[in-house]
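Notes from hallway chat w/ T.B., transcribed later so I don't forget. T.B. wanted the structure written out for a chain they're using in a teaching module, and asked if we could keep both sequence and structure tokens in one place. Agreed to drop them here.
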Amino acid sequence: MLDALAEGEMCVCDLTELVGVDQSTVSKHLAVLKQTGIVEDRKEGTMTFYSLKICCLQSFWECVESVLRNNLKEQQAALG
């Protein structure tokens, strides 16, 4: 969902379709992300739209990926 939101604002219905789970599950996850300050929401009538609140998320994922790659290389080297 975060990758999708990095592309732009999305409604709960679109996110539900994207991840293939029921709306209550998506809403619960979005509530946690909102509480932690990662996403924000905007209401338009009965629809709620979500967007990323922090702009550094992409570089964070790249950093995590780099750490995991380095750890894998070190483990492979240790195994010989």
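Follow-up for T.B.: The chain has a mean pLDDT of 91. Might be a good example for the class.
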